[in-house]
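Q: What does the predicted 3D structure of TMEM9 family protein look like?
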Amino acid sequence: MGTSAYIFILTFLSFCAVFTEAQYEDKRCICICPDPSVINGTKSNRMVYKEPVAPSKCDCDNVVLPRVADDIKGREQEFCPRCECKYESRNSNTIKVVVILVIWIISLLVVYMAFLHCLDPLLNKRRSQPSYQEHTNEDDEAGTVGGAPGMAQPLRVRPNVLGRVGHQQDKWKRQVQEQRRNIYDRHTMLN
């Protein structure tokens, strides 16, 4: 799947998130009560009842009893003290904004990654010939002309951005190669 397909999917999902209606209310009353059959002594499971009511009506009488009145029949005074009701409110618009922001950041990172993948062949074009040399002896490398042993001579830096990025990438790769050589071959650490 290409990068443009990922961008399309992320854009589509973000627009869907903006224009869909909320399935849940921003303000609701949640009551956690025992199962109505606990009054009869047969079960001890807990049930959750949710209703979008005003904060003043967030109690067992207004949220739970209309649903279970047939099951408890006259034992409301035994059932309601076992219920815990609390009123919750949240801001779903803030949640939507945060989700959309995270989606856009991820999509920007995907676009940046695709840009780097497209840019990498351009930077590595000048290194098309293999630069492998026969490995003879590490002591022979110490006598090479130039800077540090085993380090290639710096390439001519082009004045454009791609040249500077390529030069920094070559410099970083040489440093990594030198670190590997020191750690694995010479068993020393760079300071």
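A (community wiki): The structure tokens above were generated from the sequence. Confidence is low (pLDDT under 50) at residues 140-155. The first strand starts at residue 27 and ends at 34.
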